[in-house]
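Colleagues,

Please find the record for the two-part complex below.
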Amino acid sequence: MSVDSIINDSASSRRGLRWWNLLVRELGVFLRASFGSVFSREFLTVLIPLLILWEALPRLGIVPRTLVPPPSAVVSTFRDMVVDLNMAEHLSSSATRFGAGFLLALVTAFPIGVLMGWNLFIRKHALPLFQILAPVPPPAWVPITIILFGVGLPMQIFLIFLGVFYPILFNTYQGIKETDPRYLASARVFGASEFTLITRVYIWHALGSVIMGIKIGIALGLIMLVIAEMYGGRSGIGWLLLEAKEYFQIDRMVVCMVMLGFIGWFLIEVMKYIELKLAVWRIGR
Amino acid sequence: MIEARRISKFFSIVNDDRTAEGFTVLNSVSLRIESGSFVSLLGPSGCGKSTFLEILSGLQAPSDGQVWIDDKLVLEPLPATRKDMEEYRKKYRFLSPIANSLFRDNPKHDIAMIFQDYAVFPWMTSRQNVLFTLKLRGVHKSEREGAAAHYLRLVGLTGSENKYPSQLSGGMRQRLALARALSVEPRIILMDEPFAAVDALTRERLQEDLLRLWQETKKTIVLVTHDVDEAVYLSDEVVVFSPLPGSIRNKVTVDIPRPRRRSSPEIREIKERLLAMYRYDTVHESDYSI
């Protein structure tokens, strides 16, 4: 075996290893950033007493146990629900709806926001429309949406879309509009076309506020997910919540609420991670 | 050759009591800058010299007058009559006149500009900043990496290629701005108070580097500054601007052979003359207001 092939061999195996290492390292970064803040020593000194209090108050009979299920009961109910109610299916149908509505909103709101922030002509023609429509609370759309789309997936996706659309649109628009004119001027002198300006200057300058808009969009989208599932369909976390209400199963309601909270928190953490990866240049500051 | 023909710039201001007021920033400035020369525009802060430079580069439209660079018109002047104004509005209703074309990158008149506060993109590393301008210039992809390394070496930034501007010091950021400007191989470099924000020692080094680069490449350099020392030491000709409304007060040719010494008596003498002119202006300020 020649020296060359040995070097090549070790290089290729190193590359394979490097890919694997990278994945593990990035996962580590994500987990440390997300779960690290919840399970930090500082927060645990708050969380553990709170949990103990929650457990103790119903058990000691200070609050009625039928109305406030202790955490131990919530955990055992969660286990039962996973087995009895096919939780994975409900979760995945909720995720499908949310994902579809969210993506639809992202691919429409982001380009419209960029165009409105970039060009005065477009802004003057389009912005007032959105400014009039945005204050309509998304839940107010429910009746007309049900009449137009019927009860089903399209109606649910549209309601989630409505929740996510405006925050992303307005935050993107603001961020793009407030791009520092110095950067635009410096790129213009070098002959950058408007398209290059958008892809290389505007979007990067507005990145922070775009991600802020997405975070707000996620929160509003989850609200709309629950509302949409309460009004139609026979699956999803919102439906489980409504169902638990019908049978007065408070422990199941708490399980659904905790799960929704966890999903929202997790999605926000994912966005924070994406921001960290895209805006590397801010770390040095 | 840069030729500015009777450039004027007015702004209208609406006061609190809803009356409109005209505000003249530049009053009929004509200037001719030969190729390969080093010209400084000297004036107190806020006398319209930066505005003049932006008009030269085509980043602002003059209210009146024209700028010609190598017999090419930089921007069409604003219309004078109502009818022309309507047509002008119609023509530029979608894109402003200072914008370039929608999709095609085209370097205009081989100008590069360096701004007072650097304006290098903070989201790109030093290398990416230079690669970006090389791409705009239309350098082939395979040659860009090598060219970027070359220009960064030229300004002494080797070793900081992968740093973001936020990790660089003020002087290094200014060097990066210079590398970015040089990378488009311009014939004219416009500099807007480039050394105002760095400390005195760094400023001297940057000035030496700038002189060296200018002598090696023989580009036209137009430097806007409020620093008399800097103007006299660096340039062939100092154009003195009067306080608002900006107009050319005087032109002083500095024909001291290079390399110059900062403390030589000839330089000191010219400096004294310029400062005396300034002093006269501040004492007799009312003579210049309209």
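Residues 1-8 of chain A have pLDDT under 50 and may be disordered.

Comments are welcome before we finalize the supplementary table.
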